[in-house]
Every structure is written in structure tokens, then in C-alpha cells.
Specification:
- There is one protein chain.
- The chain is mainly α and 508 residues long.
- The protein folds into three domains: 192 residues, MgtE N-terminal fold (Alpha Horseshoe), CATH 1.25.60; 119 residues, CBS-domain (Roll); 171 residues, Tetracycline Repressor, domain 2 (Orthogonal Bundle), CATH 1.10.357.20.
- A hairpin with a 5-residue loop joins strand 4 and strand 5.
- It is globular and about 90 Å long.
- The N and C termini lie far apart (84 Å).
- Keywords: CBS domain, Cell membrane, Magnesium, Membrane, Metal-binding, Transmembrane, Transmembrane helix, Transport.
- InterPro entries: CBS_dom, CBS_dom_sf, Mg_transptr_MgtE_intracell_dom, MgtE_N_sf, MgtE_transporter, SLC41_membr_dom, SLC41_membr_dom_sf.
- It comes from Verticiella sediminum.
- Homodimer.
């Protein structure tokens, strides 16, 4: 069989395999069923298989013995077939799932898949992806594509995307908005990132307090649909000042002749545009809210915050905290090597310096270690246990700071409690370590030194675990940034110094 025929037959087999793989996916929304994270992971696997299959087919076609023109034609046909399968797969996915797939692909494959996403979904996908990945996608889009994507977004969504778009694109999109939409966009963009004003939604339902529930129901039936996450209707007066909220559950079960003022809730949580988004997220969690009104200084209703935006705030805060503990910023998983080096190198260099200092401290006790060689094996235990103990304390403190559970009235009590817990657990752990040191060395004095050093270093870890985040928070800095590096420096350096210093004094 000629090689070219084998290549074509294998390509045809690949197409059939791709068709069967795609047919296993829920490409179209199924009534009563929502796509979940497992579906997104399955879709990612299928996308990766199709992309790999494209690469295999391309290599096979390039190796065939026919003319260049014929080979290019075959490759073009197969490429279009595979792209059609990819488009069919992507068409049935939620924008959030498409964003998940894009973030998991290397840049070249990501851009290829991005070009296959339907234009009407571009705006929503750009909102869902992380900042770094969003930048890489926008870089490969031309001006017309960016305009088309931006024009599909609401004012509050456009405000989220505007910082990443070219200025001329934002200005042109603004010209196509209504006066009310331009005002909303300007208001949203005027609020700093991380504030309630930056995440509030302008799409909401308002009614007057002096109308009946029957009038409200007739008004709602004239709407094409209710805004997402509508659990309550906001009640305002003629000057748009917030009077209360009418819950949909109460609206549906109350007598239609009842006036709104009689069944509305006038005691409710309100937010201001300059409030911290993290504070709003904590309020949503504490009171199990779905939405909350945002009012200005005159009490006028200007927007609302919904639970979907709050979930994004919580997720971003969690990701930032996890990265900050290692001294990192958000990074594209497949970012260029140079960019990743710039992100990771600074704190690694700091860590290198702190490790060098710890090694220098240990080197000052060279004579002690040369006389009692077993100290070289035990000193890492002292440093490691102190670091782990301090990390536990630091994690508790950072979490408490993130949830606003630490204030001037309870900080002293918290410090006393953490030190007490550390000393008690340190005493128990130190007894075990002392027994281990005695068992392998036969020296009771070494066991006592080991026990004393462990208790002291765990105490150091607890102090550093509280001091670093509390001081950084006191000076309005992220308490998590570089905290683990500083903690390791303290427990290693002082752990070596304490252990070897005690050994020098009592064992030589």
C-alpha cells in the first residue's frame, strides 16, 4: 500500500475517532441539567485529544510521497474537519468551561482554540479567564474583534474588561452606548478595584412603596425576564431613595390587594460603593444573602451586588492568599519562561539569602559539630518542627485577619492563647524528640538539650507566625506575602543557633 494512502486512511480513522469522542459529550444544554466541573475536565481532555490528533495528521501528511500541492490540499481538508469537530465541541460549552480549557492549554494551542470560539461568546469568555490569560487572548485579537466582543457586554461587565482593552476601543464602544449606559459605565470605572462599586450590577427591579402587589405582578409580567439572581425587588420613593425590599417569596404568597409598604422589609443590609468588596463577601457569607442593594450618601439606590460576583471575590482572594504565601503573583500556567522567572525569582533570591544566613550560623559551631557528630543529624529536626509549628500559627492568624476576626480588643488574648498552645504541644513533642535523641546517642544530656531547643524554637516559630502577618496588616500590606519565607528564616537561623549554642554550653 502506498504511504500516502495509508496516511489518508489513518486520517480518516482519526476523524471517526474524533466524531465518537465528541458524541460522548453533552454538547447541547440538557433540560434540568447543568454542566459541572467534571464536564469541563472531560471537554478539556477531548480538546487536547483533537489537538494532538491534528498534530499527528499534519506530520503524516508531511511525510507522504505525493507532490507538495496534493499534500497541502489533504492537510487543509483534514485541518478543516478537525476544526469543525473542535467548534462543535466548544459550541455546547458554557463560557466559564471554555475559559477553563483555554487556561489549561499552551499558548499556541490556546490561540488556535480561541480562534474557533464563536464571536458572540468572546466577551463572556474574556470575563471568565484570569488576568494573565486574558491579556494573551486580547493580544491576538484585531480591533474589530475586540469591538465586537465589547459590544456584547453590559455596562458593569464592560467596566471589568475595560482596563485590559485598548483605550480607543473603549472610547468607540462608549459612543455606541445610550446616555444611561455611558453614565453607568463611567460610574463603574470610577471606583477602585476591590471596592463594592467595582463589582456592583445595575440591572435590577424597582417599585414604589405605595402600589399594590397586583400592580407589581403586572409590571413583572411585562418584563422579558427577571435579572439574574433576583431574590428581592427594591422599593424606592420618587427620588430613588431606598425604602426597603420586597422578597419574591412574600410577593407570591401575599394578597394581591396588599400594598408594598405593608409587606416590604425595611430593615436590611445596605452597601456603599466605597465599601471593601471583601467586607461585602463576608456579609454575604454571614447572612446567606443572594443580593444586596448599593446606595449613595443620599440613600439613593444606585446598584446591587449579587452572589455570583461575591463568589468571584472569594475565589480571587483565596488564590491571591495561596500565591502570596510563596511570594508569587498571578501567573499564566504557560507564560513565557522570562516572565515566570521575573515573577518567581525575587522571593527565591530572598530565600537563598536567608538560607545562607542559617548556614553561616551553623558554620560558627563547626567545632561543636565536629566533636558531637550526631548534632548534624538532629539540628534539622529542631528547625523543621519549629517551622511547622510557626506555619500552623501563621495560617490561623492570616485566616483570622482575612475574616476580620482580629481587633485591638482580642489581639492580646489571641497572642496569649497561641503561645500557650505552642508551649504545651512543644513540651509533648520535645519529650518525644528527647527520647529519640537519647535512644540513638545514649546521652541523657543530649536529650535534655534537644528538648530545650525544640521548645525554644517552637516558641520562636509561634512569635514569628503571629508577628509577621500582624505587622504587615498594621501597615496595610498583604499579611500573606512572603510570610513563609520570613518564618523559615527565623526558625532555621535561630533553631540552629539555639540548639548548637546549648550543645556548646552543656555538652562540651
Amino acid at each position: 500500500m502506498p504511504r500516502s494512502a495509508g496516511a489518508c486512511r489513518r486520517a480518516d480513522s482519526c476523524r471517526r475517532l474524533g466524531d465518537r469522542a465528541v458524541s460522548r459529550l453533552p454538547l447541547k444544554p440538557v433540560p434540568g441539567r447543568r454542566l459541572d466541573s467534571e464536564d469541563a475536565e472531560i471537554a478539556l481532555e477531548e480538546v487536547q485529544r483533537l489537538l494532538h490528533r491534528q498534530q499527528v495528521i499534519r506530520e503524516l501528511v508531511h511525510k507522504q510521497e505525493e507532490g507538495e500541492e496534493r499534500g497541502s490540499l489533504v492537510e487543509s481538508v483534514l485541518q478543516r474537519t478537525q476544526d469543525a469537530q473542535l467548534q462543535n465541541l466548544l459550541q455546547g460549552l458554557h463560557p466559564a468551561d471554555i475559559a477553563f480549557i483555554l487556561e489549561a492549554l499552551p499558548r499556541e494551542e490556546r490561540q488556535h482554540v480561541w480562534n474557533l470560539v464563536k464571536a458572540e461568546n468572546d466577551g463572556q469568555v474574556l470575563l471568565e479567564v484570569g488576568d494573565r490569560v486574558r491579556g494573551s487572548l486580547i493580544d491576538v485579537m484585531d480591533r474589530d474583534d475586540l469591538l465586537a466582543a465589547a459590544e456584547t457586554l453590559d455596562a458593569d461587565e464592560l467596566a471589568d474588561l475595560a482596563p485590559d482593552l485598548p483605550t480607543d476601543v473603549v472610547e468607540e464602544v462608549q459612543q455606541g452606548l445610550t446616555e444611561q449606559e455611558r453614565a453607568r459605565l463611567s460610574a463603574a470605572m470610577s471606583h477602585p478595584e476591590g471596592s463594592v462599586g467595582a463589582i456592583m450590577d445595575f440591572d435590577m427591579v424597582r417599585v414604589r412603596h405605595d402600589v399594590t402587589l397586583e400592580v407589581v405582578l403586572r409590571y413583572l409580567r411585562r418584563l422579558p425576564e427577571l435579572p439574574d439572581h433576583t431574590d428581592q425587588i427594591f422599593v424606592v420613593d420618587r427620588n430613588e431613595r431606598l425604602q426597603g425590599a420586597l422578597r419574591l417569596t412574600r410577593l407570591l404568597v401575599s394578597d394581591p390587594t396588599t400594598r408594598v409598604a405593608e409587606v416590604m422589609d425595611s430593615d436590611m443590609l445596605t452597601l456603599h460603593p466605597h465599601d471593601e468588596a471583601d467586607d461585602a463577601a463576608r456579609a454575604f457569607e454571614r447572612y446567606d444573602l443572594v443580593s444586596a442593594p448599593v446606595i449613595d450618601t443620599q440613600g439613593r439606590l444606585i446598584g446591587r451586588v449579587t452572589v455570583n460576583e461575591v463568589l468571584d471575590v472569594i475565589r480571587e482572594a483565596s488564590e491571591e492568599q495561596a500565591l502570596s504565601k510563596a511570594g508569587l503573583q498571578e501567573e499564566d500556567l504557560f507564560a513565557p519562561v522570562r516572565q515566570s522567572v521575573r515573577n518567581r525569582a525575587p522571593w527565591l533570591l530572598v530565600n537563598l539569602c536567608t538560607a545562607g544566613i542559617a548556614s553561616f550560623v551553623a558554620s560558627r559551631f563547626e567545632d561543636t559539630v565536629s566533636h558531637i557528630v550526631i548534632l548534624a543529624f538532629l539540628m534539622s529536626i529542631v528547625a523543621g518542627i519549629g517551622g511547622n509549628s510557626g506555619n500552623q500559627t501563621m495560617t490561623m492568624v492570616i485566616r483570622a485577619l482575612a475574616t476580620n476576626r482580629i481587633n485591638p480588643n482580642n489581639v492580646k488574648r489571641l497572642i496569649r492563647r497561641e503561645l500557650s498552645v505552642t508551649l504545651l504541644t512543644g513540651f509533648v513533642g520535645a519529650l518525644i524528640a528527647a527520647g529519640f535523641a537519647y535512644m540513638i546517642s545514649g546521652s541523657l544530656s543530649l536529650g535534655v538539650v534537644m528538648m530545650s531547643a525544640m521548645i525554644c524554637n517552637m516558641f520562636v516559630g509561634a512569635v514569628m507566625g503571629m508577628a509577621v502577618p500582624l505587622l504587615r496588616d498594621r501597615f496595610d500590606r498583604d499579611p500573606a506575602i512572603g510570610s513563609s519565607v520570613l518564618l523559615t528564616f527565623a526558625t532555621d537561623s535561630l533553631g540552629f543557633f539555639i540548639f548548637l549554642g546549648l550543645a556548646t554550653i552543656f555538652l562540651l
